[in-house]
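**Folding the chain**
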Amino acid sequence: MNLKPAKSKSTLVVVLAATSFFSVTASAQTITGTPGLPSATTTINGLQIPVPPPEFKGKIERNATASEPYWAPQIAPAKGSPNVLLIMTDDTGYGTPSTFGGVIPTPALDRVAAMGVSFTNFNSTALCSPTRAALITGRNHHSVGFGVIAEQATGYPGYNSIIADDKATVGTILKDNGYRTSWFGKNHNTPAFQVSQNGPFDQWPIGMGFEYFYGFMGGDTSQWTPGPLMRNTTPIYPYVGDTDYNLITAMADEAIDYMNRINTLAPEQPFFVYYVPGGVHAPHHPTKEWIDKISDMHLFDKGWNELRATIFANQKKLGVIPQHAELTPWPKDLLKPWDTLTDDEKKMFIRQVDVFAAYVAYTDHEIGRVIQAVDDMGKLDNTIVMYISGDNGGSAEGTLIGTPNEVAAFNGVNVPIKDQLAEFYDEWGSNETNPHMTVAWSWAFDTPFSWTKQVASHFGGIRQGMAIAWPDVIKDKGGIRHQFHHVIDIVPTILEATGITPPAVVNGVPQSPIEGVSMAYLFDAANTDAPSTHHTQYFEMMGDHAIYHDGWIGSTKVVRPPWEITGPVNQDPAGTPWELYDLNKDWTQAHDVAAENPEKLKEMQALFWKEAEKYQVLPLDASVATRLVTPRPSLTAGRDEFVWKGTFTGTPNGDAPSVLNTSYTITAEVDVPEGGGDGMILTQGGRFGGYGFYLLKGKPVVTWNLLDLERIRWEGADALSAGKHTVEFDFKYDGLGMGTLAYNSMSGIGRSGTGELKVDGKVVATQKMEKTIPLILQWDENLDVGADTGTGVDDKDYQTPFAFTGTLEKVTLKVAPPVLTEADKTKLKEAMVTKD
């Protein structure tokens, strides 16, 4: 099957080499037009990118009249090369979309499947950043430094969150071969300590080969007030003053405008659009229109157990699971059966899932608009549309009961059902909540498999539905493929389909091999039942691990439910017991056959350790939440004093000084105008967790927002007079501090502390805070001085941006982490032995 578009008869062909890449002769160079004229173009062999400066082939004399100009041919893809639209949603289990048996309508994914082929055995890494790093590089996630999400990076090669120069992305490869490249939506592949305006920018999308970026840098964000939202490297705030703004729609608008712009300026120019919306990662933020539409369908009234049965039956009818596949059992010891719930629980859980389902449908609808825009240009027939449903399985991070604020869940705080009903039911999904649903729904949406996101050893965490369409080439419309493949296979598939050679050298750096294999052989109906070309694949995430090889998978037992992110840590993940599954007979991992096949299990275990060493998987580390606050490089590393002069907004969480689990002092030298001062002095976080130090009608105020569940407030009795003043907030922390994290203990964090508010050296308010936020503030908000760029820590006090009306001459933050004595360390070690 020749996937390369036919050349124009007028094309001059210069063959540089006769090597072959997959089924396509990719190294044949073609020059279109007359060399030397401005209209000439050339393809490149692609082995070295960017190509060396071209030789000047004109003539230069002393005078221009006796000289001959020469324009080197512009680099362009081969004539007729396809556009590529690579789409991936977030946190979506296999059984979620209608295309793969789900009850939630996803017509855009249905459309892609109907135009092309569906893949039922396509796998991820079980977590966001790792899957995305593998997707854009064609290498395993540990190979490119993303063994975990960027915010959990540690100082090991497989976990440092840095995509090394010897592993160029598909953006770089396509760009240097003449494509226009862009990225819309979620990034999460820039080190968390490099996302500030200080850069460096080589690990940002524009530094990784994507010429245009519109999206957010972290793992998730509010769709109502997204932050930090970037256009290339510039923060933007399009939602200010727009009460109807939602990023899911705004991003589709932006991508459509971009593609139309490219098409208008250069109709023959092929483009690569990487489209990765925040949906449906928490917070679940669909519009009210979509919530009402889904709620009126009553899809979930019979509960999660009936939902699983329905999805399973649909999957067999559609043929997206084999007829012999078994539904894995419901984990009654972990998750309550629906018929055992109270009426209040059922009511709240249905509200949670209606909002999630609305988010799924809404996200797919906007993706459909992007696909339709390509069709409206008349370019859909020669566009490769890859639509991956989820970067991992359904998320269990909403806890067993769901949460109106995922920041609270990541700090180990649960909101009881009665409080959810009383305080958040009607607002669930609005900008007043940061919600996530209960684990049980996520487990159901992973039907027919067991487990969820974060679990790399079982298909509930790693199996993704996917469809690929290319109408001009894929003629098996509506076909289904069951061959095993992995997210690292997307890049080689794109390269084969576009006829582009994987580079050997990029920017002078020799490249490591691409580790995936092409799936393009499955575009041909003749290969429907062909053996998979992807034979071996390891999996590992936070200590949980597995190895696939030719129809068998060895999987470690799940020893930490993924909704337990702040509990005790397995200190010996390498010693976790194993299970074994024969996938030729047991497609869903329903039957562990380790006891019957001890030699096969040993063979698979040995293969895992071989692959783990090869791909930088070691050392295994089972820690989860505590890795969020592990010391790592940043603008704040090694510093205990920070000074700002005047307004300075937009420092992201990963590059901002932390005041968690430490004593600290904020001192502001201000000049209050006549008539009184107002506005923000210093803030970090926002509506769902953070602090603010500000003047309110002239009075100094400090507010600590404890995860939108409680607000602790210090306020001076008198307004500041006009003129210069020094206002200070001094907080003394009672816990042992960050040093305890070296022992994976939660005992020293989230402790109490006492704050004193002072004006010109005089104490004007004192209060003890019995609990503090232990792990992380609202991560999609900034640290701001002189204004508030996101949401406020207390909407009753002020509305953003709440700019300071006087003059901020100097703001100083000093942090003083407690120092552990040797005796403290010994006690903590003893406590850990007892606890674990």
Residues 38 and 198 are 39 Å apart (CA to CA).
